[in-house]
Specification:
Helix 4 runs antiparallel to helix 5, helix 7 packs antiparallel against helix 8 and helix 8 runs antiparallel to helix 10. This protein is 47% helix and 12% strand. It is built from 10 helices and 8 strands.
């Protein structure tokens, strides 16, 4: 495995790092104190607009659509530098990494002109209408239907776990257009205007107090035929294509998230002092911190191995389930270690004046419980690993 970068890639990193340092010194980064979801979204939109204006948004997109035609390595460098600088999150990440590339590859010219530029600038936010109450891990079992009505379709059904739907302008949605064919057939991908009549969004309050997940109900929502992405009945192919774009960088996004948390954990262990000595002086906590470091390093090397495979022409495969399973559970262990350092202060929520770091560790720990559910539960991942990686028979 080659860990080195070319001179051009190092130059790209230097340019980006200098720009981020300048923006940070100018106060462009939002503070890390706990904020309402409205504030997080507003800050994220402003920050993404700033990135887009300077040409740093959607760098992996072709130049003719506002990107830089950057390589996968440069995209990874971009993610690394944003994470290490403490940059605010990109609020339109779904559209940047998944929706935009699928429209570029499979959309009509009118769709490209209409949707791509506002994705880059975060003028228009997107959500994903995939999961349903009866179709989560088995997405092909979806029951949301789209019935032809002249030059449009009437969409009815329910989606769930729809992130940021309450802020979204558009939804990239899968619906069944032909119920008479096998379940992987007869599915179509639509672009749905979230301001259309017949759409109801109900935020789901999580145990950490956030509500970025939503239930979304569709009742005879009229969607023009020209809003189909790809071909009618080929929605499953579009869904797989979108998944491939997600997996191209998902491993690095996850490992960077854990490494940023590890960096904060190490600093906190050295400085938090409520009992007369910092947590880093406790031998049991030191062992837990060491294990977090080992786990994080294993995750980093796994990400590099996946990157090497892709650079050699390989495609993301079922081995990605190993990475997802390991990351989601190790991230929870790391955050439990952080909360354990707080003792009784770990029960304090964001906004409490006595909560260390404004309750950040407790908030993240509660949020992390959903990481073993999102993008496929741990049980599903173990099944994939057993059957498709290890070649074991299905459980009958």
């Amino acid at each position: 495995m080659d860990f080195s970068y070319t001179p051009e890639q190092e130059s790209f990193r230097t340019e980006l790092r200098a720009w981020l340092d300048t923006k940070k010194s100018q106060g462009a980064f939002a503070t890390r104190d706990h904020k309402t979801l409205d504030q997080v979204v507003a800050d994220g939109r402003r920050w993404q607009a700033t990135l887009a204006e300077a040409g740093w948004c959607g760098i992996h997109w072709p130049k003719e659509y506002g990107g830089r035609s950057a390589s996968l390595v440069e995209q990874i460098i971009f993610q690394e530098e944003l994470a290490q600088s403490g940059s605010p999150q990109l609020i339109n990440l779904l559209a940047l990494t998944m929706v935009g590339p699928v429209i570029i590859a499979h959309g009509t010219e009118e769709q490209k002109r209409r949707y791509l530029r506002p994705i880059l600038t975060a003028e228009q936010i997107w959500c994903q209408g995939y999961s349903e109450p009866g179709a989560g891990s088995d997405l092909a079992a979806l029951s949301t239907r789209a019935e032809r009505d002249g030059d449009a379709y009437l969409i009815s059904g329910q989606k769930v776990w729809t992130s940021y739907a309450q802020y979204a302008d558009f939804c990239i949605l899968l619906a069944r257009t032909d119920p008479e064919v096998p379940k992987h057939k007869g599915i179509t991908m639509f672009i749905v205007d979230m301001r259309s009549a017949g759409i109801e969004v109900r935020p789901l309050r999580q145990m950490n107090g956030d509500s970025e997940f939503n239930e979304v109900y569709f009742e005879d929502v009229r969607v023009p035929r020209e809003n189909i992405v790809g071909e009618e009945g080929k929605g499953w192919d579009m869904a797989v294509a979108m998944l491939m774009h997600e997996r191209a960088t998902l491993t690095f996004q996850r490992q960077l998230q854990s490494r940023v948390a590890l960096k904060d954990l190490l600093e906190f262990a050295r400085t938090w002092d409520i009992t007369g000595r910092p947590p880093a002086a406790d031998p049991i906590l030191r062992q837990q911190i060491a294990q977090s470091y080992i786990d994080s390093e294993a995750m980093r090397l796994t990400a590099l191995r996946h990157l090497t495979r892709q650079l050699r022409g390989g495609q993301p495969g079922p081995e990605g389930s190993i990475e997802k399973l390991f990351w989601s559970e190790m991230y929870q262990r790391m955050l439990w270690t952080a909360v354990g350092m707080l003792g009784p202060y770990g029960n304090l929520a964001p906004g409490d004046p006595h909560a260390p770091l404004d309750g950040r560790w407790s908030h993240l720990m509660l949020y992390s419980r959903g990481r073993t559910i999102a993008a496929g539960t741990s049980e599903i991942q173990r099944g994939i690993i057993a059957q498709r990686v290890l070649g074991m028979p299905k459980d009958r």
